[in-house]
Design a protein that fits this description.
Blueprint lengths: L1 H12 L1 H30 L7 E7 L5 E15 H6 L10 E8 L3 H4 L3 E5 L3 E5 L4 E6 L4 E11 L2 E5 L2 H47 L5 H32 L2 E6 L5 E5 L3 E5 L6 H17 L2 E2 L4 E2 L2 H32 L4 H13 L4 H24 L14 H26 L2 H9 L4 H30 L4 H4 L26 H10 L4 H36 L1 H4 L1
Antiparallel strand pairs: 1-2, 1-5, 2-3, 3-4, 6-7, 6-11, 7-8, 7-9, 9-10, 12-13
Helix pairs in contact: 2-16, 5-6, 8-11, 8-13, 9-11, 10-11, 11-13, 12-13, 13-16, 15-16
Length: about 550
């Protein structure tokens, strides 16, 4: 009886609920840290130069074959489960061990990965002369370097081939950069200028201002563009002739030889020969390429710079849009609106908007912003572009506005709470000293409530940066050919579609034609998205803390 009374008193004291709450928070922290740890190990480890294994194994028909590749994963299956899935197991075998090998050479074998049973492996080693060729198409190639060719002539073979390959590959990479610069920057600017001239001509025709004089002016401008275009085309022809000249010849595990043009190669390495410091240097090189280059191979290879740029640009634009509107709405509700039934109803509506599923905002943004607002903008200001839409199609601006609408309730509520915490005596003192209400609000109340505004912005950024569902409808694409920001006037192109880290994770993880190759990029991109969100939040937190310290004395 005494024990029951003690337990009841213990529960009445509230101590159990404190312990339960602490246990729940601790469990959540452990789970978050565990997920981040898994993402970090799987994602960051992808760029480490793994050893290349050559092994001989026996197939089911008794033939001995050889494969070359990287050991990616290992599975251990109990004998009972293995037998139930169709594997033939002897009574002495307790488990079935299988290795997932990345064998590459997709253009020759049709697949990048292969499962090998440990019991079928007869011999394996790690020869130092094995090479890994990272290609712009068809994924990695694994094999032995045989020779380097210039055209049809062999210029190096045997041990000398590796040094000559490195020299020629560096030249090929430099030529490829020059080609990319000419195609994207110089010729891209010409194409952009020609399209602008076409639209200007169409606008003059619609206004009945197209005459012989304007026709001559436009013809002169086009002729100047044609001269530059022919010059760059000549340069491109010379560069393509040089970059396609050299190739390497490599031998596969089956003994077949394959010639790979150096123009199709990103990098060649010999991981089994690398020392630790060489692997560390290569690791940071590949990590830098991942952060700074464009994606390749249906987003399963290359970098994710366009997705990083698009995510940050969209979040910044969203913040610029949502902050003033959220602050103005909160100021009106707290400082000017009559506190009655209507105001309470508006606050309830704002709180309910915060719980609306994000896909609903995406549908609204597509229907109202894109089709109605954007379509009318095109009719009024861009009739020469018809029937091609300018703002009547999903793009960066509509995505930013849609997410601003999605996060607006968070900013309103946080700002209102900050305004409510400003003491009434501060307002009365300012008015007593002769300041008007707007001066009191602008110079005293809003600065003191600014930390709460920044808190709302932090929450808005954290939610907006990770959203995917609405963005799929209002501007995000799998692969954007150009960035929204470039050197062509007006420099920031709000009508362009863009890439986003969240959608990139979804696309690579669930829409990729090569699941095993895409899996490491899912982890790496997820980790990067977390780091981007943390970076944006830290910047806002630092600003908030600075403002809080600045106005702490005034609050006292």
């Amino acid at each position: 009886m005494l024990g029951v009374i003690l337990i009841k008193n213990w529960f009445k004291s509230g101590s159990p609920w404190i312990w339960f709450n602490a246990a729940a928070v601790s469990t959540c922290l452990i789970m978050v840290i565990g997920v981040l740890g898994l993402i970090m190990v799987r994602g960051v480890g992808h760029f480490w130069a793994s050893p290349i294994v050559q092994l001989s194994y026996q197939e089911d028909d008794g033939q001995i074959k050889s494969i070359i590749g990287e050991h990616v994963d290992t599975t251990v299956t109990p004998a009972i489960m293995a037998k139930s899935t169709g594997f033939i197991m002897s009574d002495k075998e307790d488990v079935l061990i299988q290795y997932l090998m990345k064998t590459g050479n997709r253009d020759l074998t049709g697949s990048d990965f292969r499962w090998i049973q440990e019991r079928n492996i007869k011999f394996q080693n790690e020869p130092e002369n094995l090479i890994v060729v990272e290609r712009r198409e068809w994924g990695n190639f694994y094999g032995n370097l045989t020779a380097v060719k210039e055209g049809e002539n062999v210029i190096a073979s045997g041990e000398k081939a590796w040094d000559v390959l490195q020299e020629r590959l560096q030249i090929a990479l430099e030529l490829h950069e020059q080609i990319a610069h000419l195609e994207k920057k110089e010729i891209g600017a010409i194409n952009y200028g020609l399209e602008k001239l076409r639209l200007e001509q169409r606008a003059l025709e619609l206004k009945n201002k197209w005459n012989a004089q304007t026709q001559k002016e436009f013809a002169d401008k086009k002729a100047a563009y044609d001269v530059d275009y022919k010059k760059y085309q000549t340069q491109l022809g010379e560069l393509y002739q040089k970059v396609r000249r050299d190739s390497l010849v490599a031998k596969t595990e089956s003994g077949a030889e394959l010639a790979i043009p150096l123009s199709k190669i990103v990098d060649v390495s010999q991981p089994n020969k690398m020392a630790v410091f060489s692997k560390i240097g290569r690791y940071f090189k590949k990590l830098g390429e991942f952060l700074s280059e464009d994606p390749r191979e249906a987003n399963t290879e290359g970098g994710i710079f366009p997705a990083i740029f698009g995510t940050i640009m969209m979040v910044i634009m969203m913040s610029i849009i949502v902050t003033p509107f959220g602050v103005i709405a909160a100021v009106y509700l707290r400082e000017y609106a009559k506190q009655g039934f209507t105001t309470r109803l508006i606050r309830i509506a704002v709180n309910n908007l915060a719980g609306v599923p994000s896909i609903v905002y995406g549908v609204f943004g597509l229907g109202f912003f894109v089709y109605i607002l954007g379509g009318n903008i095109d009719k009024l200001f861009f009739p020469e572009s018809a029937p091609a839409p300018v703002f009547g199609t999903p793009g960066l601006m509509w995505a930013s506005i849609t997410l601003a609408l999605l996060t607006l309730p968070v900013v309103i509520v946080s700002t209102e709470e900050g305004l409510a915490r400003v003491p009434k005596a501060i307002r009365e003192g300012s008015l007593a000293l002769g300041a008007t209400k707007i001066e009191t609000l602008w110079k005293t109340v809003l600065p003191m409530a600014s930390p709460a505004m920044m808190t709302g912005l932090i929450l808005a950024v954290a939610r907006a940066a990770g959203e995917v569902a609405p963005l799929m409808l209002v501007g995000v694409v799998k692969l954007a050919p150009t960035l929204p920001l470039d050197g062509n006037y007006p420099f920031l192109h709000l009508d362009r579609k863009f890439m986003h880290l969240g959608f990139h994770i979804y696309d690579v993880g669930f829409q990729s034609p090569n699941v095993e190759a895409a899996r490491p990029l899912v982890y790496a991109t997820s980790l990067l998205l977390v780091l981007v969100i943390i970076g944006l939040n830290l910047a806002a937190i630092l600003i908030r803390n600075h403002l809080r310290e600045k106005y702490r004395a005034l609050e006292g």
